[in-house]
## 1
Amino acid sequence: MADPTELSLLEAASALRAGQLSSLELTDAVLSRIDALDGRLHAFLHLTPDNARRQAEAADHRLAAWRKQGGDPPPWICGIPAGVKDVLCVAGIPTTAGSRILEGFQPPYTATSVDRLLQAGMVVVGKTNTDEFAMGSSTENSAYGVTHNPWRLDRVPGGSSGGSAAAVAAGMVPLALGTDTGGSIRQPAAFCGVTGLKTSYGRVSRYGLIAYASSLDTVGALARSAADLVPAFESMAGHDPLDSTTVSEPVPSVGLNGRALKGVRIGVPQEYFIEGIQPAVEQCVRRAIEVFWSLGATVVDLQLPHTDLALPVYYLLAPSEASANLARFDGVRYGPRRRAATLMEEYLETRGALFGPEVKRRIMLGTYALSAGYYEAYYGQAQKVRTLIKQDFDQAFEQVDLIACPVTPTTAFPIGGHGDDPLSMYLEDVFTLPANLAGVPGIAFPVGFDDEGLPVGMQLNAPHLGEAALLQAAHAFQSVTSWHKERPDL
Amino acid sequence: MPLTLEEVRHIAKLARLRLSPDEEQRYQEQLSDILDYAARLQSVDTGHIAPTASVLQLDAPLADDEPRPCLPPEALLANAPEADRGMFKVPPILDGAG
C-alpha cells in the first residue's frame, strides 16, 4: 500500500476493516510523518509513541477478532490515530493547556470526550499546541512556541486549536480534537484549509476539559472532510453524568447522502459581509453559496441585527468566567510553585510569573467586570445583550434551516502581525463568536484560496443539536467540489 | 482612559497577580481600550430583557446518593509541588499576610 497518511479517515478505516492495513502500520506512518514535519510546524507539544503503538495493537486485535468471528463491527474510529488538543486531559500524558503554570502536569483521569473515543478504539499519538488556556486566535499565545501554518510557514495557523488544524492540514493525522469557545475550532480550520466541527453547547461532555469560559466551551474535532468527522462526532457526543450541562437528547446517526439539500433553506446574514472583509473571502464564500443553491437549497437573505455586539459581549463574559475558572491555578495542587514566605506571596508570585500576557489580561478584565460597582454595568449588561444575540438566531431558524457565512474576515495573517494590540486580535473572531453566545453548532470547511495561495473557509450554523444537518450539508458540498482535497506543498 | 493605575493595581491584587510596573502600565492602556470598545453595550436598551447565563434550561439534576469509586489520594497528590502525610503543604497562613 502507498503512504497510508495520504488516506482520508474513512478510507483508512475501510482498509483497517478489510485487513489491508493495520493500525500499527498506520500509526507508525503517522509518527514518521510527524517526525519529518513537526520540526518546521510545531503542531505537537507532546508525542506519545509508545502508548500509541500499544493502543494500535489493541485496535488490530479487536479488528482481527471481528473479521474472524463476525458480529457488530468495531466503530469506524477504531485504529485511527489522532491528535488531542492540549486542553483535554488524558491520564498519564502531560497536559499543559499551553501554559507554564501546568508544566509537568499529568492528569490522573481522562476527559470523557477522549475516553469515549479511546473506548471506541481511537489511537492518541500526542497533544497538540494551543493558545494558553485556549485564549487566542493564532497559537502565538502558547507558552511553548507558535505553530506554523502548513500553507505558508510565516503565517499563523489560527487558534486556539491551531496545533490540531496544522496537524490535519499537513497530513500528520487524519483527525484531531479541538475546543471552541469563541471560534477556536472554526477559525483555525479556515486558516489551514481543513474541516472543523464546533458542536452545540451541551452536546459533548466538558468533563476533563480544562475550563476557559464554562457557558461557552464546546468540544469538537477537525479532519479533512465532513464525512471524516462523522465517526468522531458519533463516538464522543451524548449525555455524561459527569457533566450536568450535557443534554439527554440521543445522538442521531448521521446518514450521509449527496442529495441531502433538496428543500433545505439557507440564510445568508447581511451583517457578515462587512466593510473590511478581504475581497477573496467574500468571493469564495458567495461562490460556495451558489454551489449550495445548485445542489437544490433555497438561499435567502437574512438579518442577525445584533451581530456587531457579539464581540463586546464575548470579551466581557468569557474573561469573567475565565477569571473564576483560572483561580484554581495557585501553585498548591499542581504545576510549579514560586516559593515565598507567605501563602499570599506564593499566589502572587506563582500566578504573576507563570501565566502569559494574554491570560493575565483576560483574568484582569474579568476580575474588573465582576468587581463591586461594575458588575451590573459590564457583566450584567453583557448577559442581557447575549439574550438579544440568541434571539437573533432563534428568529432566524424560524425562517431557515442553516445559516451560511464567512468564518473569518481575512485569510491567515502573518505571525506577529497583530503585534501587542489585543483589540485588533479580538476582531479576528467577529464571525465566530455569535454561535458560541447562542450555543448553536457550526462547521467550517474550505471553499477556495486567495491570491497568495492561502485557504478560505466558510461556515454553516444550524439550530441547537443540529450537527447532523451541518455534516450532511458540508458533505454534499464536498461531494461536488475538491477544495478539501488540496494539500500544502511541504 | 477609563482605568487608573491605582485601579489596575487593585484588580491585580484581587486576581492574585504580581505585575511589574511595566505590565501595570501596559494593562492600564490595553484594558482601557477594551473597556472603551465594550462601552457600546451601554447604549443598548435591555430594560425588559432577561440575562442569559446559559443557553440551556438547566434543571440542576441530583446525583444518585450512592458510593462510587474515586481516585486514591496518592493520585491526587502526585502533581503537588509539595505534599506531606497525605495533604497539600503550603507556607503558614495564620501569622503571615495570607
## 2
Amino acid sequence: MADLNGVRRGGSDADRGQLLLVGALSLAVLFVALALLLNTAIYTGNLATREAGVEGTEAIEYTSASREGAVAAIESVNRRNDSSHAMLSSALRETMAAWDDTAAHHRAVNGDAANAAVVGTTNGTRVRQREANRNFSSVGGAPDWTVVDGATGIRSIRFEVNATRLKNGPTDSFRMNVSSAEGTRSLSLYNNSTDDPRALIDGPEGTSVCPAGSVTGGTFAVDVANGSIGGASCSALTRLDDTSGTVTVEYDDGDVGGGAYSMVVNGTSSSLSLPGLASPGTDDPDWTDALYGASIRISYRTPQLEYTTTVAVVPA
Amino acid sequence: MDRGQAHTLEAITAAMILVSSLVFALQVTAVTPLTGSTSSQHIENQQAAVAEGLLATAEENGTLTPTLLHWNDSAGTWHNATQDGYVQGAPPTAFGATLADALSDRGVAFDLTMHYVDAAGNRKSRAIVDLGEPSDHATSATRLVTLEDDDRLRTQGGSVSGTTLENASYVVDDTVAEQNLYAVVEVELVVWRI
C-alpha cells in the first residue's frame, strides 16, 4: 500500500485506477449474485413441480391388496372347510387376521399404520357334483330339474364337462338356465358335427357360440367367472352370473351331459329351495354351507392421511 | 476522504467475494453426477412413477407372482442366480423382460427385493435383483403380494412345476398352516440413474 500513501503522482490517475479495480470487483459480485438469483429461480421451478397434495396411493393399494387377500381367504375357507357357517366365518376371520398381521408389519416399516378386519360375512350355499362320471341329472335322476330357487346371487359357476356324453347339435342338448330380474340366460353345451364341444349362450343380449379351446382326456372346463371354455376365451359366458333379484337355476336335459360342477349361491339352505340335491356329503349332487362374500373394514393412517373404508368382497 | 471511502468499499467487496466464493465452492463440490440435487427432481418424479407403474402392471397382468416363484428348490436360490440374487440384470421371467425393456435398456439401474416376515416376527429381505448400491437420488415403489399354499414353483424355463409352495423349502415359511394363505410379502423396486 506504499503507493497509495505516497506522494500523489499524476494526481487523479491513481484514484481512477483504484476506482476501476473497485468497479471491476463490484461487477464480479453482481455476476455472482445474478447466478445465485438464476439458481433460485430454477429451484423455485422445481418446488412448483413437486406434489403438494396428500399421497393417497398407498391407502388405495392397501385396500386393493386386502381385497385380493380376502378373496383368496374366502376361496380357501370354502375349499378347506364345509362345516357350519359359524366355523367358516371364524376361519375367515383368523385367516384375514394373519394376513393383516404380516401386511401391516410391512406397511409399518414405511411409517404407515394399516389394518384390515372382517366385519361381516354373507352366508351362502355351494351346490356341487364331485363325481365326474355322473350325468347332470338331479339326485333322484330327473333330467329336467330345478337346481336352486330363491337365491339372491350366484357366483363361481364351474363345470368339468365330459365331452363324450354331449349330444350332437344344440337342439335338446344339456342346458343350464339362470333366471333373475335381468331375464333368463342359458348355457347349452353340445358337440358340433366334427365332435368339437361348443357352448351356446342365449339371453336378452342375443346368442353367442364359443368353441372349446382344448379337450384333455375327454373333459374340458367351463369357467363362467373367467369367461373361458376349455382354456379359450368366451366373454359371453360372463353374462350368466350377471343377476339381480331372486335367482333360479334349472337344468334341462341333464342326461345328455355329465361331469363335475360347482357354484355358490347367496342364501342359506333354509332360505333356498334345493329339491334336487342331497344333504351335505350323502350323495351326488349335494349342497354344503359356504361363504358367499364378506365385508372388510380397512383403515390406513399416515402422518398426512387418515383413511377408513368398508369394502364388500365377493370372489368371482 | 475519497481514499478512505474507496478503502472501505474495497474491504467490503473483498469480504463479499470471499464469502460468495466459499458458498459457491461448497455448492460446486456437492454436485456430482450421482448426487441428489434439485435439478434431478423431475427425473426422480418420473422414475418413481415408472417404478410404481411397472409393479402395478405386473400385478395386474399376473407376472409379478411367477417371478417370486422362479425359485430353485434344491439350490435354495432363484433359478441361475447367485445367493445375492441376479447380479447382472433382470431375471429370466416375463416381469424380468419388462424390467429390462423399461429400465436396464434405458440406462436405469434397479434393485428388486422381496421383504418377508419370518416365524419370529422379524422383517427380513431377500434380493431378487441386486445391481448395486442405490445412489442418493434413487426412488422406490412397493407392492404387497399374497402367496398361497397351492402356488406352484416355476421351472428354469418358466413353466409351472409340480412343487407347491407348501411342499417347497422357500425363502419364507407357511404363515397359516391350516389355511391356504402361505405368506404376505412385499416387493420393493428401487430405481436410479447410472
## 3
Amino acid sequence: MRDVAVIGVGCTTFGEKWESSFRDLFVEAGALALEDAQLSGEKIDAMYVGNMSAGRFIEQEHIGALIADYAGLSTNHIASTRVEAACASGGLAFRQAVIAVASGMEDIVVAAGVEKMTDVEPGASTDALTGAADREWEGFVGATFPGLYAMIAQDYMHKYHMTREQLAQVAVKNHFNGARNPIAQYQQEITIETVLKSTMVADPLRLFDCSPITDGAAAVIVAPLERAREFTDTPIKVLATAQASDSIALHDRRDISTLDATVAAGQRAFKMAKLSHKDINMVEVHDCFSIAEICAIEDLGFCKKGTAGKFTADGETALGGKIPVNTSGGLKACGHPVGATGIKQVYEIVQQLRGEAGKRQINGAKIGMTHNVGGTGATVAVHILGRV
Amino acid sequence: MVGIITYGVYIPRYRIKVEEIARVWGANGSEISGGLGVFEKSVPDLDEDAATIAVEAARNALLRRKVDPGEIGAVYVGSESHPYAVKPTACTVGEAIGATPNMTAADYEFACKAGTAAIQTCMGLVKSNMITYGLAIGTDVSQGAPSDALEYTAAAGGAAYIIGNDDPIATINHTCSFTTDTPDFWRREGQDYPRHGGRFTGDPGYFKHVKGASNLLLTQMKKTPKDYTYAVFHQPNAKFPQKVAKDLGFVPEQIKPGLVVPHLGNTYSGASPIGLAATLDIARPGDTIFVCSFGSGAGSDAFDIEVTDAILSEKFNRSAAPSVEKLLQNPIYLDYAQYAKHKGKIVMQS
C-alpha cells in the first residue's frame, strides 16, 4: 500500500444558502480545493462524492455523474462515484479516495461531500434524515433522530448521572469555537442558560443540543505521498483510515449509550497509525446532538466511560484543554450538511495541521483525528492525519 | 397633488388568543406568543367575509369625508380571500356604497400587498385625470391551516383609502416597488389553505423585498429614516417589522403607532393599510410617514406620505369613524371550538 497525502482542501461557508443550488455548492468547494492544490481539472483521475439524500432533498439522483459534469470533467470521462452512508457519507467518500490512491489504482483523487437541505420544508427534511435509522422498526413507528438521541441521553444520564448543565457545555464550547470559524453557520457565542432555556425538542434534548439543517459542500484532494510535493509545500499524511458498522436500529445494540462502531473504528485507526489517544492534538467528532459528542470522546478513548460530562465541564475539550474537540464548532455551530460533514472534518484538521486555523489554532498541532457517524452509530468512519 | 382624501378601517370584534390555539395543539402558547410578538388575533363573525369587511371599511371612510360616491371612478379591492374565485368583490363594494355604475372595478391579489397595489393603481388613474376619486381597499379573512404556524396569526380586517387630488389629508409624494418571482408562500386554485417555505419566507422573502423597496424609496427621495415622523411596515408578526425597521435605521418610536399586530394578528392585505390608518389616526399636519408593504410571491410597495392641514379641516372629521385603537377595544374572546365554527372549519352535513 502506498502512503497517501491530502494536497488540497476547499469548503463553502455553511448555512441557509438560499442563493446557492446543489450544483453551485459543490462547484464552489471543488474549485477552492483545486485552487488550494494549484491543480488543473484534467489531472484528476477519480472522484468520490459523499451525499446522503439528494433524491429526497432536491429530487436528483445520479450525483457522481452530475458533479463530474458540472465540475467540467465529463469530457475527461473520469470515474466519479457517489458514496452514501447517511451522515457518514463524507467520511466514507474520503476513505474510498484514500483506498483508491493507496492501492495504486488512481493517483489524483477528489473526495467531496455536499448536501442542499433547505429546498424542502422542515418536516420533509426530518423525514429524509429518518432514512438513516431503521425505517421499519424505528421510522415507521414515529422515531426521529432527535427522539433516538434523546433515548441515548436518557440512558446515559440515568447510568452515569451526568448533569443537564454538563451536557449543555458541549453546545456552549462548540459555539465558542464556531464564533472563531469564518465558514460556520452560527458564529455567536452562547451560555448554558441559552441551551437550558431553548425550546424542548425531545426530552432532555433542547433546540441548542441539536445540530441545524444546513447547506454546504467541502472537497479535499488526495495523492500519493511521494508525489505530494509537486502540488503543495504542506502535504498532510493520512496516518489511518478505519470504518466500522453496527446494528442499524438503536434497540438492537448491546448498550445504547456506547457506540460500539466508534469503539471498533477508533481502535482500528489507532492500530493502523501505531498511535494512541495521547498522540492526538485535536479531534473533530460527530456531535449531531450534544449527547453524541459525550459518547464519542469516551468511545474513542479520550476519557473514561461515564466521565465525559465532567471532562467537558472542566474545559478539557475546549481550545487549550487536554484534547480540543470540534475546533471547527462541530456539527452544532459550524452546521451539518449531512453528506459534507465528514469532508469538512478533514478540512478542519488539515487547516489545523497546516497552522491555518486562525483564532481557533491549536499551537504546534501535529496529529489530528476525525470521527464521522451515520445514523445512531450503524456506520462510523475514523481518520488520523498528521504533518509530514 | 395626489394623496389620501379619506380612510376607514374595519376589524371584526371577535378574538382568539394565541394561547388558546396552542392549547388545542399541545404547543407552548407563551413561547409562541413571545416568539411572534402576537398575543391574539381577530376572527370574523359567521356572516363576515372579505367583502363585508371591505364594505364596512369603505363606509367608515365615507363617514369621515362627504365624497359623492358617484364621483368614485374606480374601485380596486386587494385580498387573498375574495369570497368568489370568479365574481369581483369590488362590484359588491361599489354597489354597497353607491358608486356604481359609472366606474371601473377589479379585484387584486398579491398575497399581503394587494391593498397597496390598489392604492398605486388609483394614484395613476387620478394623476392621469382618468378619474376624480379612486377607492383602494386591502381586506382579508386570511386562512391558516389547523396547527400550521400561520394559524396563530392569520386574522381578519381591512382598510379603505379614497385617493384623489382634491385637498388630500395626506399627500403621497412618491411610491416605488420591488418585485421578483419568489415562491415563499402560495395557495393553488381549489386549495383551502396556503402553504409556505418555512424559514425561506424570512430573509429571501420579507426582508429582501422590504429592504429592496425601502432603500429604493429612500434613494429616490434623497431621504434617510430620520426624515420621517413615522414608519409602517408589513406586519405578519411583530418581530419582522421591528427587525427590518432597526436594520434600515428607523427607531422603535417611529413604528410604534402603526404596529398593531400584537393584538390584531396578521390581516394580510389589510395589514400595512391598517398600520397606516392607525398612524393617520394620531398624525398631525406636517408629519411624514414612511410605508412599506410586503406580499409573498414576492414584492413590496413603498410610499412617502406627508400629512397636510386638511386632516384638521372642516372637510374632514377624523372622529366620525372609529379609530384603529377603538376597533381593537372591547373584544369578545372565542374558544377554539367557537373559532372553528366562525372560520368554517367545522364541516356541516348538508
